[in-house]
């Protein structure tokens, strides 16, 4: 089919309206994103929207109207809350969901008993709806799964040859799709955040909830309040990874990546190929530019893109919601002090792995080293140890290790007390040293509850016979002593069940290759 390119002239608007009225498809600008419009009351026309987009048919469409009162025939009842939102906001980047009337075909509502209605603020959009004389079903005018179109060019890229006409009305003012709120539940709930924020809605109708799927995504078996939320969305071909970091940490991280692109804010100092999407403190600029930049990254051939995390307040919530879907929920959290927490039983071979990670540019923070520092002459923990285990455990500023061990390991309770004194002090020394990409090498990482400070936990394991041999050679101890040490530790299951990844270091398996795979996945 030949797609007509139309302008916003009287004549072209009249033609666009005519095409829609007759059952055809017209893409047109709105203040949010470009929409792909068809007569919402005509099942056949609506079916052709799903076909042109490649959209699953259980994902309902928003019905667009030109005047506030046009909502009345489409719904069972305009509830008082709906009326309040209409009075306050319409026309606006806001969609309200209510129980549908019999006028709305199942194809439009995706088989649901509700309908989503919106009166766009954009003049051109309203002129076209008016000219058509019917309510207009219009999803975003992109191929399903790709970023929504915010410029006529994007629509042409996706829809040329598949629809009757495209009206070029310039760039979209907001750049992210409308806020979708359902009023068909007990408490009004935001199903998709947009430029009309939770705060703005609450100022008019009181308590508003945010659907958990907005920020966290959903598992395969959950039923979606809004079917659109279960599909992968807004994704460029490139793999996008969000980096939770402030400006300085983001720059440092991204600038040391190879074969990657960055999606950053204006003013970030980035040395690898990159694009910006607005500025850090300006959520409206981020919303306006995000989808266009995701499309451009594909044109630039990006395969891996590290994106700076937007704030989640105000319209930032909408930006974050779109970006996290584009990233398929991949986030690297560098706000935690340690990128990798490395733990495992004695003799499992953590040392070898630390050497390798050092070669890869990680800073290694050695918890054992700090633990030993705390037992050196005049350590600040000595007075506390004396109060707990007796004055004589320290004499002339020197720790009597044997005596302390005897008293501390006398019972489980006493051992716990020792840990309660030592762990916080070790943690602080480690944290003071943490900077950049670093690995926390800590045999007692789990016992000291440092999980939350590590972005990912990797545990290293090896068969008992291998560990036994290693510690006997390393520490020059007898078989019995080595066995006792191993017995005093947790079993393998303890580590495996609390780690994100496990590396087997039995001296044969290719440990470096195992770690490369982990790094590839998490960075
Ligand atoms: O800004 C916008 O809303 C744009 C412009 C063109 O108006 N339109 C748009 O439509 O974004 P679309 O189809 O791409 O997204 C509509 C979203 C989908 O996630 C859909 O699942 C949800 O709204 N939705 C529609 N009707 C619904 C209903 N009855 N119940 C729950 N969710 C619904
Ligand atoms: Mg869409």
How is this structure best described in words?
- It is built from 20 helices and 23 strands.
- The strands form four sheets. It has an eleven-stranded mixed sheet, sandwiched between helices.
- A hairpin with a 2-residue loop joins β19 and β20.
- α1 packs across α5 (123-132).
Q: Total helix count?
A: 20
- Which residues form runs of ≥5 with pLDDT under 50? none
Q: What structural class do you assign from the helix and strand content? A: alpha/beta
**Oligomer kind:** single chain
Shape: elongated
Q: Which ions and ligands are bound to the chains?
A: threonylcarbamoyladenylate, magnesium ion
Which bin fits the share of residues in helices?
A: 25-40%
Sheet with the most strands?
11 strands, mixed
Q: What is the total tally of β strands?
A: 23
CA radius of gyration: 30 Å
Adjacency order of strands in the biggest sheet? 1-8-2-3-7-4-6-5-9-10-11
C-alpha end-to-end distance: 44 Å
The pLDDT mean sits at 94
Range of strand content: 15-25%
